[in-house]
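G., the chain you wanted modeled:
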Amino acid sequence: MSRITPAPVLQQLSGDGNKTIRAAVAGNRSTPAATLAHLAQDTFQSVSIEAIRNENTPPETLDAMSRHANPMVRYWVACSPNVSPDALQRLSRDRNLNVCCAAAGNPHLPTETVDQLLCHSDWQVQEAAARNPNLSRRALAMWQLANGS
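Predicted structure as tokens:
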């Protein structure tokens, strides 16, 4: 689908019975925010994830999807640059390690939370936090000392 596909056409196609068509609409940067919010709730994971990955998906939709039962959906929410700091903080405590790592590495995660994740029990979360640009220099220096770096 073209970036110049008119919004009314994208809205109509978002209700297509073919999940591949709906996924293409969800990934299109011209798709209206309200349509993306609807597609994020799609029963097919591929459609939902394409909507979540779309840079025009509203933060409110991402926040709602951050509580989704499927960890793959929560992972993609944690990767989004548009997810709210509150949702990121919640995702940084997720029971799924991949989700937690994605949140730890998101540059929109508040510094205080990034610093706290350096003490996480899992080394992968620690490393994701250590690479986060919001990590404070003080916390990084203390982590490097503790880890012999």
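The chain has two domains: 1-56, 58-149.

Shout if anything looks off.
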